[in-house]
Every structure is written in structure tokens, then in C-alpha cells.
Amino acid sequence: MNCPRISQLLSITCALKAGDEPLAAIARQIGYESATAFSLAFRRMYGVSPGR
Asked: How many domains does the chain have?
């Protein structure tokens, strides 16, 4: 995984913790085409789904 993508995942992790927006909206804001694509990348990096 490349550094810009890791930075994006860290940013979205903070946004998810805040809980203000749905997963799909946050994922689109940082360049993922779908919540599914983001969920797969998140799971690869952290070993859990973003909903946990």
C-alpha cells in the first residue's frame, strides 16, 4: 500500500470515529468510488471492517 493511500485511510478513520457522516459519503470525499472499495482497503490495513 502506498503512502498517500495510508494517509487517506488515517484521515477517514478519524472521520469515522467522529460519526458525523455515513461511510459512503466519507469514502467518496477522499476518492473511493464506493463504500465497498473503501471497506476492502480499510480491512486490508487494519484487519477489521470500518464499522467496528
From this structure: 1
Contact 8, 31 (CB under 8 A): yes
Q: Is residue 52 situated within a structural domain?
A: no
SS (H, E, C) 2-47: CHHHHHHHHHHHHHHHHCCCCHHHHHHHCCCCCHHHHHHHHHHHHC
Whole-prediction pTM value?
0.64
pLDDT: which is higher, 50 or 1 = 50
DSSP 8-state class, residue 44:
H
Residue type (1 letter), 37: A
